[in-house]
Structure to design on (472 residues):
C-alpha cells in the first residue's frame, strides 16, 4: 500500500496555543481513519492542514508523495485531490444543489456547463438525492444538505476525502443517510479521514481509529483493539464517557 | 395671506423637468444626469474601498481605512468646494461643473458605500469562504461567485438608504452653479418670486423618486428570497 497522507513531526500554534504537538501519522491509500477525542483536542485543525485551510509551523505533511508544506505548493491541484465536508455543511445558499456541485468543475477545471452538469447529476444520484437537484439549500433537510455537500466535494474527483464531524449538526434520524453515503465511498476505496464520534461507524468502516487529546495523537489502533483494549488511560477515560450514553 | 398659484410650475415645467431634473438644455445640469453616474461610480469605488478595508495586506488596508475615516469626518459641501477651487489649480486646467460635482460625490459617497460593502462582506459566514477554498476556487473566484452575491443581498437595505441620501445630496451641486432641479427652481424663483409653489413642487419630485427607490428595494429583497 502507498501512503496517501503523511504527517511528519507536525506542530501548529494558534498564537501561544500549541494545538498540534509532534503529530506523526500515515494514512494509506484507500484507508479510512476515524479521528476522535475531546473537544478542542485539535482534530479539526489536523485535517484542515491536509488541504491547507491551515498552515503548520513545523514539520511536514506529504500528500501522495508531494510535500504540501512551504510556499511552492500547487494549491489548486492539492485541493482538487482532497475534498472536504464540514460539520455545518457550508452549502452556497444562493445556488441550487446542482449549481453547488457544478461550481468547482466549471470555475476551477473550466469544464463546459453541459459536461459539469452531467457530472453533478451523476454525483447527486450517487448520494441518493437526484430529485433535489433544483432545490436551494434552505429547502433541504440537514441530511440532504450534507449529502449535497459530499457531492460537491466529490465533483473535483478527489482521491482523499476529509470529513469534519459530518453528522454532529444533524437530527438523529438523518445521521444514517449520511453515514450510508460515507460507507459507500469507503467501500469504493476512497481514502478518508473522518473526525467523528459515531463509534458504530468507526467499528464497521474504519481501518484504524486515532484518539487525540491536547494536540497529541495519543493512540492509533484498528477499531477492534481500540474499543476492546485501549492502551492509554486517556483513551479509556474518553471511551467510557462517550460510550456510556 | 398669499394666494397659491401653481401656474408658475406649469409655465416653467419644461425648464424644471427637462433642464433641471433630466439635464437636457442650454445649461450643464440635471439631477438624474448627476445622480445616476454618481451612484454607479460611487458604488464601484465603494466596492474597492470595502475590499481594501478587509485586505490582509496592511499597505492596502491602511490607506482604505484612512480614506473612509477622512471622508466620513468632513462635510460634503467642503469636498465640493475643494474640488471646485483646488482641482483646477492642481490639474492646471478648468474643470466643468459636471466633472467637479461628479468627482466630489463619487469620492465622498464611496467612503460610506465602502463601509456598507465591508459590513456586507463580513456578514457572510466564514464557512462559505472555507468551502469555496476547499473546492479549489481562488480568492478572487471565491469573492466573485460566493461572497459578493450573498453580501450584496444583505447590503440592499443600507445601500438603498445611502443611494437615497446621495440622490438628495445632489441638490448641493447647485451651490457651484450646476443646473439641477434645485438650481432650476431657484432660477425660476428669482424671476417670478413664487418660492412656496416652486419648492413644494421640487420636494414632491424628490420624494417620488426616493420613495420609488425604497419600494423597489423592498421588492428586490423579497425576490432574492430568504436565506
Ligand atoms: N482559528 C483559530 N484561532 C485560534 N485558536 C483556534 C483556532 N481554531 C482552533 N483554535 C483552537 O485550537 C484548539 C484546537 O481546535 P480544533 O482543532 O477545532 O479542536 P477540535 O476539532 O478537536 O474540537 C482549540 O483550543 C481551539 O480553541
Ligand atoms: Mg472540531
Amino acid at each position: 500500500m502507498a501512503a496517501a497522507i503523511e504527517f511528519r513531526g507536525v506542530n501548529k500554534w494558534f498564537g501561544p496555543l500549541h494545538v498540534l504537538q509532534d503529530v506523526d501519522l500515515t494514512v494509506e491509500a484507500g484507508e479510512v481513519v476515524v479521528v476522535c477525542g475531546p473537544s478542542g483536542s485539535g482534530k479539526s485543525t489536523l485535517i484542515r492542514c491536509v488541504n491547507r485551510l491551515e498552515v503548520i509551523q513545523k514539520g511536514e505533511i506529504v500528500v501522495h508523495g508531494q510535500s504540501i508544506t512551504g510556499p511552492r505548493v500547487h494549491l489548486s491541484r492539492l485541493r482538487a485531490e482532497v475534498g472536504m465536508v464540514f460539520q455545518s455543511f457550508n452549502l452556497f445558499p444562493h445556488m441550487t444543489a446542482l449549481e453547488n456541485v457544478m461550481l468547482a468543475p466549471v470555475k476551477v477545471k473550466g469544464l463546459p456547463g453541459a459536461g459539469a452538469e452531467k457530472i453533478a447529476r451523476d454525483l447527486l444520484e450517487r448520494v441518493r438525492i437526484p430529485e433535489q437537484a433544483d432545490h436551494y439549500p434552505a429547502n433541504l433537510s440537514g441530511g440532504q444538505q450534507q449529502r449535497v455537500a459530499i457531492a460537491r466535494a466529490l465533483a473535483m474527483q478527489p482521491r482523499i476525502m476529509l470529513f469534519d464531524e459530518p453528522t454532529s449538526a444533524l437530527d438523529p434520524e438523518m445521521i444514517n443517510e449520511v453515514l450510508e453515503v460515507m460507507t459507500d465511498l469507503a467501500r469504493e476505496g476512497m481514502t478518508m479521514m473522518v473526525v467523528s464520534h459515531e463509534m458504530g461507524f468507526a467499528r464497521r468502516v474504519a481501518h484504524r481509529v486515532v484518539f487525540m487529546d491536547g494536540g497529541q495523537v495519543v493512540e492509533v489502533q484498528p477499531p477492534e483493539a481500540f474499543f476492546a483494549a485501549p492502551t492509554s488511560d486517556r483513551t479509556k477515560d474518553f471511551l467510557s464517557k462517550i460510550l456510556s450514553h | 395671506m398669499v394666494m397659491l398659484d401653481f401656474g408658475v410650475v406649469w409655465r416653467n415645467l419644461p425648464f424644471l423637468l427637462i433642464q433641471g431634473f433630466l439635464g437636457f438644455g442650454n445649461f450643464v445640469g440635471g439631477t438624474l444626469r448627476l445622480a445616476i453616474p454618481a451612484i454607479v461610480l460611487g458604488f464601484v469605488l465603494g466596492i474597492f474601498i470595502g475590499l481594501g478595508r478587509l485586505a490582509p495586506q496592511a499597505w492596502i488596508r491602511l490607506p482604505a481605512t484612512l480614506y473612509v475615516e477622512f471622508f466620513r469626518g468632513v462635510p460634503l459641501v467642503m469636498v465640493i468646494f475643494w474640488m471646485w477651487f483646488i482641482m483646477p489649480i492642481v490639474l492646471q486646467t478648468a474643470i466643468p461643473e459636471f466633472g467637479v460635482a461628479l468627482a466630489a460625490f463619487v469620492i465622498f459617497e464611496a467612503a460610506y458605500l465602502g463601509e456598507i460593502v465591508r459590513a456586507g462582506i463580513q456578514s457572510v459566514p466564514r464557512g462559505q469562504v472555507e468551502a469555496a477554498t476547499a473546492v479549489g476556487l481562488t480568492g478572487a473566484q471565491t469573492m466573485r461567485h460566493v461572497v459578493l452575491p450573498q453580501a450584496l443581498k444583505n447590503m440592499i437595505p443600507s445601500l438603498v438608504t445611502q443611494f437615497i441620501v446621495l440622490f438628495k445630496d445632489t441638490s448641493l451641486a447647485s451651490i457651484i452653479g450646476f443646473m439641477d432641479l434645485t438650481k432650476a427652481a431657484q432660477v425660476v424663483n428669482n424671476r417670478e418670486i413664487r418660492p412656496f409653489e416652486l419648492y413644494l413642487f421640487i420636494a414632491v419630485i424628490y420624494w417620488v423618486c426616493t420613495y420609488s427607490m425604497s419600494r423597489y428595494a423592498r421588492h428586490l429583497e423579497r425576490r432574492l428570497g430568504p436565506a
Summary: The mean pLDDT of chain A is 95. The longest strand of chain A covers residues 3-14. DSSP finds nine helices and ten strands in chain A. The radius of gyration of chain A is 18 Å.
